[in-house]
Amino acid sequence: MYTYQYPRPALTVDALVFARENETWFLLLVQRGNDPFKGMWALPGGFADLDETLEEACRRELEEETGLKTGPLRQFRVFDAIGRDPRHRTITLVFYMFTDKHAGISGGDDAADAAWFPVNNLPALAFDHAEVVRQFLQSGLFPE
């Protein structure tokens, strides 16, 4: 469909989905079913399709990987460090939302599993997702 003389970066989306139960905040993560980082936990997300907005892509990926259906998401920021994905040059727009922890979730599509983790006790994360979470928690957008 398109031909370009120069290589182009891949465009992805990732979701920070938080829920509070009692006094504890939880973050929704997926266990990767494929390489790179197969078996590690990561933020739900993936590649944007040509016929969707980035927010639509994020909602689609959330539903495909966790079963969670959602309404509007808010943009956090772009992460574009060179080498953040070992496959190729990848730029991601991170969205966030707060939701009911009791929403049913299950791993699907290329996610082997989906689970809620306490924000203060996260597993090791794939890609640069630990940095994404750290920046969000320090951004002033996260309710204390």
Q: Order of helices and strands, N to C?
A: EEEEHEEEH
Based on Cα principal axes, name the global outline. globular
Percent helix, as a range, is 10-25%
Radius of gyration: 15 Å
Structural classification: alpha+beta
CATH architecture level-2 label: Alpha-Beta Complex
In CATH terms, what is the fold-level topology?
Nucleoside Triphosphate Pyrophosphohydrolase
Report on this model:
There is one protein chain. By secondary structure, this protein is an alpha+beta fold. The chain has one domain: Nucleoside Triphosphate Pyrophosphohydrolase. It contains two helices and seven strands. It has helices at about 55-65, 130-135, and strands at about 10-20, 25-30, 40, 45, 75-80, 90-100, 110-120. Strands 1, 2, 3, 4, 5, 6 and 7 form a seven-stranded mixed beta sheet that branches. A hairpin with a 2-residue loop joins strand 1 and strand 2. The model has no long low-confidence stretch (mean pLDDT about 90).
Give the helix/strand layout:
Elements: E1 10-21, E2 24-32, E3 41-42, E4 45-47, H1 54-66, E5 74-79, E6 90-99, E7 111-118, H2 129-137
Parallel strand pairs: 1-6
Antiparallel strand pairs: 1-2, 1-4, 2-3, 2-7, 5-6
Q: Which key terms come to mind for this protein?
A:
alpha+beta; single chain; 7 strands; 15% helix; 2 helices; globular
